[in-house]
Amino acid sequence: MLPHPTGIEPIPRHESTSTPQASKTQLIEDLAFETAENDKTVVGVTEAIRLDPHDANAYYERGNAEQSNGEYDKAIADYTEAIRLDPKAAHAYNNRGVAWRAKKEYDKAIADLCVAIQLDPQTVRAYYNRGMTWSNKKEFDKAIADFNEAIGLDPHYAKCFHERGIAWSDKSEFDKAIADYTQAIRVNPDSITYYNRGNAQYAKGELDQAIADYTDAIRLDPLGALAYYNRGKVWCDKNEVDKAIADYSDAIRLDPLAAAYYIGRGIARGQKNEMEKSTADFSEAIRLDPENSDVYNSRGFNWFLQHEHENAIGDLSEAIRLDPKNVRAYLIRGAAWRARGDEFKARADESAAGAIRRTPEDSAFQSLLHQCGQVSTPSAKANPSERPMTVIGAKQAPRIAEGPRSAAEKKNNPMALTGFILGLVSVVLYFIGILPILTIVFSSIGLRTFKPDLQKNKWMAGVGLALGIIYALMYVREYGHLGR
What is the pTM of this model? Predict the structure, then answer.
């Protein structure tokens, strides 16, 4: 008998002495959870239900087989009938909750899993499944609480440590995530857990440790393209471009339909100044993902560097059509127009870029302004297609945590931004004494609440705080008090 599907409890077995019942029970046990022959299982259990339509276990078993086939509506119907016949069947509530979760009806899933826990407070799987559902709802504190309960009941449940690690990662508490991944590896080392620990190491800036974990993931699963891809990104960050290209090439060999892998290799080849090969990779990525603004932007920049300004303008125009707020595309296209002698269109694009982003907010933007009247070499960090990816396996396979955000995806801390703007206003209107005070308050909050893995431009809070202090002192010097 094959193992039952992940997250689904095996049926409690009940002995019986009557011949028809014993025959029916044996039929169910022989067929249940043989996932390679689920259709036969459904047929066999249906026959068992015909023999005894009041047997809750038979409906439960057929629901399990249907859930294994991905027939969640049928499974829910059978679990519901099992519950009607046996209202205290905690395992039926648990498995119906799993089916609701598979349908992304998370509130219904949680309702069923709560009943399962009420009926059997020792059911580890129900806590685990409810924790997974809270994670799906982005309620990570509740997820962690449920994983804690499951681990308390079964301290060797590796998947709970793994999932709790993902929840900690989602909360950007990477040290706790790494501790949980490490415990999961001690209990049951597998490639996905090493991969996720590598993502957490990367988020902390521990590049060598991230490479070591991705390498272990590859050792355990040489066919896992994602580990090659993410290790390639780390090699790029370490400026070991040849190793990056080798890893991206392996990822492409394993999964030739993933546009992101070609984008990664195209960026790495661009760093080596292999512009034709880089452009070819971007072209293949566009073929696979024609709605990706960033890859048109990258190929357009390659054309610009090769002085193919007509091609550059074509690609950058497409990038802007797909993403009208693509600042880089406006700036590079403006440079291409200028190279062709069309100053009017060049200035129009630069004005459009300025309207979207009025102040230089990151190093990539400043590099763009510095080069070509406004272009910089595309970097792996600036390309959102280059962040470590997330894979969700079928039938509740172990999840892969989302990797750290790229610079292009990070947002400004709103307190820091507000403090910075107030600081600039204070330069002119410092005689309104409340302005420097508000500048200091907002900037201080921005510094304290800044999340480096999710937000960018911490410097704005520092500049705002300095301006607030300077102009608060100036106000006191001129007026003898503060706060009018």
Answer: 0.66
